[in-house]
Amino acid sequence: IRMKVIVGVKRVIDYAVKVRVLPDKSGVDLNNVKMSVNPFCEIAIEEAIKLKEKKIATEIIAVSIGNKACQESLRTAMAMGADRGIHIETSMRTDQEVQPLAVAKTFKFIAEREKADMIIVGKQSIDADSCQTGQMLAGLLSWPQCTFAAKLEVSEDKKSAKVSRESDAGTEDLTISLPAVMTADLRLNEPRYATLPNIMKAKKKPMEVLTMDAITGVDFTAQNTVVAIEEPATRQAGITVDSVESLIDNLKNKAKVI
Question: How far apart are CA 198 and CA 158, in angstroms?
Fold first, then answer.
C-alpha cells in the first residue's frame, strides 16, 4: 500500500547563534550568521525516515519556502533520507513576512497535488515561534491532526495511527484516521546526522523549484507587520544581604515584590 509523506523544512538562524537586532529594530540581523534546519523540522524529517525504514512510508517529500539558500536545507533533509525536495522560492523574510496561514495554504496545495497520505511538520519554528502552521493546515484540508506528537505508531493497513501527545496535563494517547497532519515535539525522536556518502547521494536527488505564482490560490501578503524588535533588557547584578531583615527590606522597598 502506497504511503506518501510530506515533511516541512524551514531554514532558521542556528539555535546556538547569538541573535543580533538590526539597528532600525525592524527585525533580527540575518547577514553573516549560521543558518540551519529548524530543530523541530529535523525531528519531523527523522520520524518520516523511521516510517520508511519500517516499510510504512513509501516516499518522503521535503518542502521548504524561502530564498535560494533553502535548497541547502532541503539537501540536508535528503541526505538524512528524504527522497526528493520541493522548493518554493521567495525573497520574502520567512521569519516575518511569510506567515503561517500562507504556509499552511501552500502545503495544502502541495499535499493535494502530490496526493499525500501524511504531513509531518515541526510544532513550531525557533524564529517566529508561531506554532500555528500544522493546526491551520489540518483545518484547511479537513484532516485529523495531532499536535506536539511525542510517539507515533502507524497501523499495518496504514488507515490509522496511534499517537501520544504532550499537554500541560500530561501525556494524551490518541487514535486518529489517516490521512492526517502531525506536528513533532522535542521527545518524538533524536534526529540522525547525515553521513558523507548520503550527503553526496543527496546532490543527485531531484529537487523541484517553484515560484510563488505557481502556488495558485495563495496570497502571500503579510497579514500583520512587526512594529519593532528590541534586545532583552540587561539584567542588573545581584546583591548579597547579611540578614533576613535586610533581605525583606530590599524585596519590599527596592524590588517592590512584596
Answer: 28
Tell me the CA distances in angstroms from 253 to 238, 244, 245, 247, one per residue in order: 15, 14, 12, 10
User: What secondary structure letter does DSSP report for 251?
Assistant: I
Selection from 227, 219, 224 nearest residue 103 by Cα: 219
User: Would you say 63 and 41 are in contact if contact means Cβ atoms under 8 Å apart?
Assistant: no
DSSP state of 221: S
This prediction's pTM? 0.88
Q: Distances in Å between the alpha carbon of 174 and those of 144, 154, 161, 253?
A: 11, 12, 8, 51
Return d(Cα 240, Cα 49) in angstroms, integer: 53
Question: How large is the average pLDDT for residues 237-241?
Answer: 86
∠6-9-15 over CA atoms, to 5°? 150
What is the chain's length? 258
For the segment 140-176, what is each residue's pLDDT rounded down to a tens digit?
999 999 999 999 999 999 999 999 998 888 899 999 9
